[in-house]
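Input sequence (98 aa), recorded before submission:
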Amino acid sequence: MVKILIVDDYPDQSEYVTHVLKHTSTISYETIKATSLREAIAAYKENRDIELVVLDTDLAPTGEMGWQVFDALRNMGYAGPALARSGLWKRSEWTERV
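Predicted structure, token format:
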């Protein structure tokens, strides 16, 4: 089973991503959800075998940015891919990290 960390400040968006993954693929997924940098770090500490991180680019309630979460996870040893999602586009913070 593939573990995916979904970081989004809107729980309904995390549920949407989970729904799409579970209903459009033949691979079994376990989704782990976080709404902030702190929650994402805690989730990764408990699940070092996460294989994909799906990030909202702007975590508005906390003022955090998805790239900050990505950088923190990388600093903790996460070496897998990340998928950034947003209602915003052309964020230079992401193009610098690709």
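Checked by second reader. Residues 11-24 form the longest helix (14 residues).
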